[in-house]
Amino acid sequence: MSLFARLFLAHLLVLLLAAGAMFWVAELLAPRFYQGHLQHMMDMMGPMGLSLRASLEEGLYSTLRNALLAALPVAALFAASLAFLLSRRVSNTVTLLARGAQEIAHGRYNYRLSEEGPTELAELAKQFNYLSKTLEQVEQSRVNLIGSVAHELRTPLTALQGYAEALSDGVLPKEDAAKKIAREVRAMGRLVEDLSLVSRVEAGILEVHPQPLDPLKILQESQERFALPFAEKVVQLELASADHLPPVCADPERLHQVLSNLLSNALRCTPAGGQVTLGAEPIKEGVRFFVRDTGLGIAPEHQARIFERFYRVDPARSRREGGTGVGLTVAKGLVEAMGGRMGLESVAGKGSTFYFILPFAKA
């Protein structure tokens, strides 16, 4: 038996039982309502009324019963119509949900249900649409990720193929070919490592080992590590920090990784003769680390998406200079894994400031 038939019979049975109960209650309670009226009539009619009492009672009782019996088919028709409408509405919604689940099972995540109808069914359809929209976004992210990875790998693979052909034809010396091939292999390895880190960050399974750290010492180590690359590009790297900063609770390796990503981005985006400032300052929430550059800045329409994986403000320049497009995604995930948060302040044409806040170390 179909769902509609079961619902229809269930509704009809409930309504008929209600009508039967009403009939029975009327039969049971009606005499109590007309007994007083009969007694008043008997008093007015005198001795003659006593002989008519039984006839009047039977007439009233018979009239009530006939009226109820006459109304019963109308009530049954009304009950059947109402049961039909309610059952059809519920069964149609269930059928649409089943069809929607089948559509999603076949990968058609853009399927949506009508959100009209009773409150509960409309809410159910609304939640189903939210589910399908979320799955559609996840699928689109998966497609975008595959396309981005393929695009990122295509560049070093094309270069490797070119170097291999040049080496095979004797156009490129073996030593030069080996160096160039090793460079492209390192680029591919860096991309794979970044993707692995991004996947662990987004899955929430990244391990961090926080401990009390001296922010000034971390900044000085990062400045020393990047002194040579900045000098080679003729970009000034300055350290701006108070002499004494309260210790923060962070993983030293991950903190260095975050600063390395921010400094690398700042170096790529700052032209020769520019300046990058690395610093930290205490605030109410914790210690605020920042990397400020005098580059081109980031337009407002790009700032909301700057931490998305593979998102680039200038794709051609970033790819040419070796960026994988996931550095900021990794940095943001690492900061959040250590209990902090990351943000951006930028004005187009005047430079950018990437900052993150880490909590104070407990005593």
Q: Note the total helix count.
A: 9
Rg is 40 Å
* SS class: alpha+beta
State the order of secondary-structure elements, H for helix, E for strand: HHHHEHEEHEEHHHEE
Major β-sheet, in short?
Answer: 5 strands, mixed
**What portion of residues is helical?**
55-70%
Descriptive notes:
The chain has 363 residues and is an alpha+beta fold. Helix content is 66%, strand content 12%. The strands form two sheets. It has a five-stranded mixed β-sheet. Helix 2 runs parallel beside helix 3, helix 4 (174-203) packs across helix 9 and helix 6 runs antiparallel to helix 9 (327-337). The two termini are 70 Å apart.
Layout of strands and helices, then pairs:
Elements: H1 3-45, H2 47-105, H3 119-169, H4 174-203, E1 211-213, H5 215-233, E2 236-241, E3 248-250, H6 252-269, E4 275-282, E5 287-293, H7 300-303, H8 315-320, H9 327-337, E6 341-347, E7 351-358
Parallel strand pairs: 2-4
Antiparallel strand pairs: 1-3, 4-5, 5-7, 6-7
Helix pairs in contact: 1-2, 2-3, 3-4, 4-9, 5-6, 6-9
